[in-house]
Amino acid sequence: MNIVALVGSIRKESYNMQIAKIMQERYKDKMNIKIADIRSLPHFDQDEELDPPSVVKDFKQEILSADGIIIVTPEYNWSISGVLKNALDWASRGKRVFMKKPVMPLGASSGMVGTLRAQTHLRQILSAPGIQANVLSPGGNEVLINFVQQKIEENGQLDEDTLTFLDSVIEKFVDLVKSN
Ligand SMILES: Cc1cc2nc3c(=O)[nH]c(=O)nc-3n(C[C@H](O)[C@H](O)[C@H](O)COP(=O)(O)O)c2cc1C
């Protein structure tokens, strides 16, 4: 199973990136997770949407070829980050590469509600006409990692409770991808 992960934070020590890497390693027997380079995408420009720069074409092809997408989002001012929105905007125009694609959203923040507002907003974006992804249903599947600075341990691993929950949601995501 080939999965592409989009990580909405590009800072070096990003917790969300650390979580994507933990997942890459932990679920390697179930899926191959490739983390997309969304930092290199230029700002979305509608003048270029039908013939975008090659880095955008490559990114869109990666999404199109993937069996499913994992989106690990931080919360920036009650929403997703600009860098993630930019990637989604490119993906939504010209060839709509997210159409019916299975998506698992999750995220980590330093605040109390653990990206709830960002993920709610993300789900809304993923239902837009240019995207129409097949998003894992929220019931029982919302991975909202709050106070993340306390949950990533010194060895770089997530705490056991979070990992156990993540394991259960990944199983549902695998089912979604297989049934797609
Ligand atoms: C521009 C900006 C806005 C933020 N807004 C929120 C917010 O609305 N809610 C929240 O819980 N945390 C917010 N934070 C704190 C982030 O949750 C925290 O910086 C987190 O570590 C970011 O994810 P990262 O570690 O993957 O970079 C914000 C951080 C930044 C830089």
TrEMBL record:
Domain NADPH-dependent FMN reductase-like, chain residue ranges per copy: 1-135
Top-rank lineage group of the source organism: Bacteria
Pfam families for this protein: FMN_red (PF03358)
Stated family: Belongs to the azoreductase type 2 family.
Entry protein name: NADPH-dependent FMN reductase
Organism: Oceanobacillus caeni
